[in-house]
What we know:
This protein is α/β, with parallel strands linked by helices.
Amino acid sequence: MRPTLRNLAMAGLGLAALALPALAQDKPKDIKIGITTFLSGPAAVFGEPSKAAAEMIAESLNKKGGIGGVPVTLSFVDEGAGGEALVSNYRRLVQDEKVDATFASISSGSCNQLVPLAEDLKMLNFMWDCGAASILEAKKYRYNFRTQANATPEMLAVLVYLLKTKPNFKTIAVVNQDYAWGRESWEIFSTALKQMKPDVQVVAELFPKFGAPDYSTEVKGLLLGGVVGGGPAEQAGLKKGDVIVEIAGQTIANIYDYTYALDVLKIGQPAKVVYMREGKSNETTLTPSARR
Length: 292
């Protein structure tokens, strides 16, 4: 029977003198750790560095003799492969490869699948990311532990910062990814916002698909960073902070739409502009000049 990681840690720290003889006697070949992370898809941009960091830590540990004199070996599972493959590969780690512990996962969606499974399999699991608060706080587990903060303090910190740096804001919109963390973090933020600044109007709640590379379906408009004094925009009554959503009947979703819409306008020809200001839709007429 392989000694538990708890015994190994106690031996490594010198806190269990009585366990040392047993550890030496039953010392395994290695300590096997299974790790889930994104190795494919858009989230691999932080999943691959996480894998590299884990490998660096294991290499450093092993150069120092491992844990309690036992080397550490790592096995990785790709969260980007999808839910069904993730669950199957996690079972393989536990039941076939006989890992001693797992670190799962990055995504809160992955954790919602694997945390109950780890509990059923009686596998020691560290939720090394998993920011959604409800994963751990809503239930009590014996085999699952979280090693970092969750969405509650993270969202409250953002709200407190916003209230401190821009206390007079009147409207707010959210664009969060459509999965456990994205939904829960907004619920935490908006609930606290209603208590701390109840007069703020939520003008949009948008949840694009997790990993979506383009938000143009959800986000419409171009934020004006400023207007030229005496220019057509100022003459039309537009101000810094306005959001242009339509020019001459063309929807504006990004800078490319905005540039094209202006390019096709004729100098001196008035064009209707639809814009948002403080959460309300407004219209004005803009007449391009040669100065643009």
